[in-house]
Design goal:
Length: 444
């Protein structure tokens, strides 16, 4: 049922951007589907947050003998009104070392930045677009113009803010092809001047996470939580990011309920709003749980963000969690070794709804998926529509993540949360300290 539900949403709701009427309709739909599937414990978890919507944007690039207006899209949390004119400066990948090489020339310029890594050393680690924007602002840039790495004149949106607040300068994205043209001008010695104008909307809104659960039995006070973001950007219908994950969760809840699964621990299903605008819903829910004492009951968090055809699970947890997941993967392979490889990895990552749970010490798990370049090339863009979704990918989500959930819920014991210092040391080991400092999330 997950795929037909997602098709209906794409046709009748469209995008699911937080703070819009479309987003509110998606919240109601998810609540209704949980209830129609027979889950009795369903509720909204509202939160207040600053939402952002695009209005208009225009870009004119001029050299001495030519000019053109490339198609572009504003990045979220750009100012409500912005009009910037300045010389273009190519800072490559926009990493700290790139900005350091150009630091004497950045102030007052429009910096041209790759979204992905181009020509970087093998050991280089990319930064999120919001982190690159924060570094450019610190260096004195007047605006940031990102170049998408995907060919085919694909434009990408997303937040350029590390904390969900409006940024002080405009940020926009142009296509790979237009970026290449501008770089040819610059490489030929031309001075290129950009004029970037945009209007956007931003206001504090009330949005709602949607929460449902199947009550546990003898270990009901312990919770295994599976979540994924329901919201999406407004350029398309967000079918893969993250209709694929969120509507799989809805179907998983239906299947587990209809199969009369009676787990020992409580299984909680959460669809988050506001992920795309800065993990707003998951941050709010973690703070609500922290205030109520509920956070200690969340034994682990499984995050489903752009997942399909899972081939195993990655885990970020203290001692014992890798072995726990390996045991579960082995069990799933006894059911279906042909479709499920059962890979187990460890590691930490950022910029999805697991992050607030992880930073609170909760072990987090993610399915290993490879959706293919045709899907990832449409990430946050106008081509992220229902034609990209493989119904079998959603069925495999329900099958394999469902088996993971029931195994976690029925285990005799589960390993512990991180202690605060153990989490700090692990984040340093994983190379995340700099990124968390840029985002203002490093508390040590």
């Amino acid at each position: 049922m997950g795929h037909p539900w997602l098709v209906w949403s794409a046709e009748h709701i469209g995008h699911r951007l937080t703070g819009t009427t479309h987003g509110a309709k998606a919240e109601v739909l998810a609540d209704s589907l949980f209830r129609a599937s027979g889950l009795a414990a369903v509720h909204y978890a509202p939160f207040r947050a600053r939402a952002w919507q695009r209005d208009s944007v225009g870009l004119l690039l001029s050299a001495a003998d030519s000019s053109f207006r490339p198609a572009c899209v504003a990045l979220a949390h750009s100012p409500v009104l912005a009009s910037v004119r300045g010389g273009l400066l190519d800072v490559g990948n926009g990493l700290p070392e790139d900005l350091a090489r150009s630091k004497e020339h950045i102030r007052g310029r429009i910096v041209l930045v790759n979204l992905g890594l181009v020509g970087a050393p093998k050991e280089a680690s990319n930064l999120h677009r919001s982190e690159k924007t924060a570094l450019a602002i610190e260096a004195g840039a007047a605006a940031v113009l990102f170049v998408n790495n995907v060919e085919g004149h694909v434009l990408l949106t997303g937040t350029a803010s590390v904390n969900g607040d409006l940024i002080s300068i405009p940020a926009a994205c142009i296509s790979s092809e237009d970026g290449a043209l501008v770089r040819r001008w610059l490489a030929g010695g031309k001075e290129v001047v950009g004029a970037l104008n945009m209007a956007n909307e931003s206001e504090v809104v009330t949005a709602r996470n949607i929460v449902a659960e199947i009550q546990g039995s003898d270990l009901a006070d312990e919770v295994v939580l599976v979540g994924g973001h329901l919201d999406c950007w407004d350029l398309a219908t967000g079918a893969t990011d993250n209709g694929l994950g969120s509507f799989s969760i809805l179907d998983m809840a239906r299947c587990l309920k209809n199969c009369d699964i009676k787990p020992r621990r409580t299984i909680r299903f959460v669809l988050f709003m506001g992920e795309e605008q800065g993990l707003l819903g998951s941050k709010a829910l973690v703070e609500q749980y922290r205030a109520s004492g509920e956070l200690d009951r969340i034994r682990c968090m499984v995050n489903m963000d752009m997942t399909g055809h899972p081939q195993g699970f990655g885990v970020m947890g203290p001692s014992g969690w890798k072995e726990q997941i390996e045991l579960i993967n082995t069990g799933i392979r006894t059911v279906d070794s042909a479709s499920f490889a059962g890979r187990t990895t460890t590691g930490a990552w950022l910029h999805s709804d697991h992050q607030p749970f992880m930073l609170a010490g909760v072990p987090v798990i993610n399915p290993h998926s490879d959706l293919g370049s045709h899907v990832y090339g449409c990430y946050h863009s106008s081509c992220d529509d229902i034609h990209l979704v493989d119904p079998q990918a959603m069925l495999d989500n329900v099958r394999f993540v469902g088996m993971l959930l029931t195994a976690l819920a029925d285990a005799d014991t589960l390993p512990a949360h991180f202690t605060d210092m153990a989490l700090r040391d692990r984040l340093i080991q994983e190379g995340l300290e700099e990124k968390l400092r840029i985002g203002g999330d490093w508390r040590w």
